[in-house]
Amino acid sequence: MEYVTLNNGVKMPKLGYGVYQTPPEETKRCVTEALEVGYRSIDTAQAYYNEEGVGEAVIGSGIPREEIFLTTKIWITNAGYEKAKASIEESLRKLQTDYVDLLLIHQPFGDYYGSWRAMEEAYRQGKARAIGVSNFYPDRYLDLEHFAEVKPMVNQVETHVFQQQKMAREYMEKHGTQIMSWGPFAEGRNEYFTNPVLKEIGEHHGKSVAQTALRFLLQENVVVIPKSVHRDRMEENYDVFDFTLTPEEMDRIRALDGGKSLFFSHHDPETVEWFMSLL
């Protein structure tokens, strides 16, 4: 396993397992299998409604808690100091743990400054070993980073070969925030798994398109959390540490970057109105 060291000295696995859209009734089984495969970083969220399954799998695995890196996120309906503070306790209860390794604000909407104060408090109390944000574009990220007492340690954003977040990464690196990818496979959009560049490079190394794409992100120092409910895919996604892409291959994949989201934009008024409708 490869690791990154966050700006507070905490070590985080560069490869983890995500449970976004994993049905609650399937989560325990999926996380159990992921842990058996070798994953030691699990990413969940309040909005996924499967924190309980993650907690049950971790407890049932018999693996010491300190060997597993747990991430969860505060949803926008829990934004604000009081609600966020209560929701953190609820997440810890569901996960059956005294602390999480990484606590994120899921979306840059609502009173996320209040949420951040609650997170700083949880951090100082040892209920979160690291805190950060998710889906914060450079403008919102820089605003929070400038005024926060505890600087964000992670920003989890859409990152894959077609959206490499080059500008956002520049500012994160400048201020010591680690980039973390959600959607490293872009959910297969843009004919991801048949891309000729990824396919050709992968064949050269005896690897799949998915493995090639993950290896690219890892070499770009991006933390990744691929998700699958199938054990064979979990194993395939985990098997990415026995080869290295050449500088030329890295440049070819960098050239695939379109610089735009394949999902949504927080700068789009209709997208913002949709998020506001949840409140």
Could you please describe the fold and organization of this structure?
With 279 residues, this protein is α/β, with parallel strands linked by helices. Helices cover 42% and strands 13% of the residues. It has helices spanning 24-37, 51-61, 81-95, 112-124, 138-147, 166-174, 196-205, 209-219, 231-238, 247-254, 269-277, and strands at 3-5, 11-13, 17-18, 41-43, 69-74, 102-105, 131-134, 154-158, 178-182, 223-224. The model has no long low-confidence stretch (mean pLDDT 97).
Keywords:
single chain, 279 residues, alpha/beta, TIM Barrel, 8-stranded parallel sheet, two-stranded antiparallel sheet, globular, NADP_OxRdtase_dom, oxidoreductase, NAD(P)_OxRdtase_dom_sf
Q: Would you summarize the structure shown here?
A:
With 279 residues, this protein is of the alpha/beta class.
**End-to-end distance:** 40 Å
Kindly report the name of the CATH homologous superfamily: NADP-dependent oxidoreductase domain
Overall structural domain count: 1
Question: What would the principal axes of the Cα set say about the shape?
Answer: globular
Q: Approximately how much helix is present in the residues?
A: 40-55%
In CATH, the topology is named TIM Barrel
- Poorly predicted runs are none
**Mind telling me which CATH architecture this is?**
Alpha-Beta Barrel
For the largest beta-sheet, the strand count, sense and barrel status come to:
8 strands, parallel
Which value, in Å, is the CA radius of gyration?
18 Å
Strand proportion: 5-15%
Following the backbone from N to C, one meets helices and strands in this order, namely EEEHEHEHEHEHEHEHHEHHH
Strand order, main sheet: write it out.
Answer: 3-4-5-6-7-8-9-10
- Class from helix and strand fractions: alpha/beta
- Separate helix tally: 11
CATH class: Alpha Beta
Number of E strands: 10
Mean pLDDT: 97
Pfam family, one: Aldo_ket_red
Keywords: NADP, Oxidoreductase
Protein name: Aldo/keto reductase
InterPro entries: AKR, Aldo/ket_reductase_CS, NAD(P)_OxRdtase_dom_sf, NADP_OxRdtase_dom
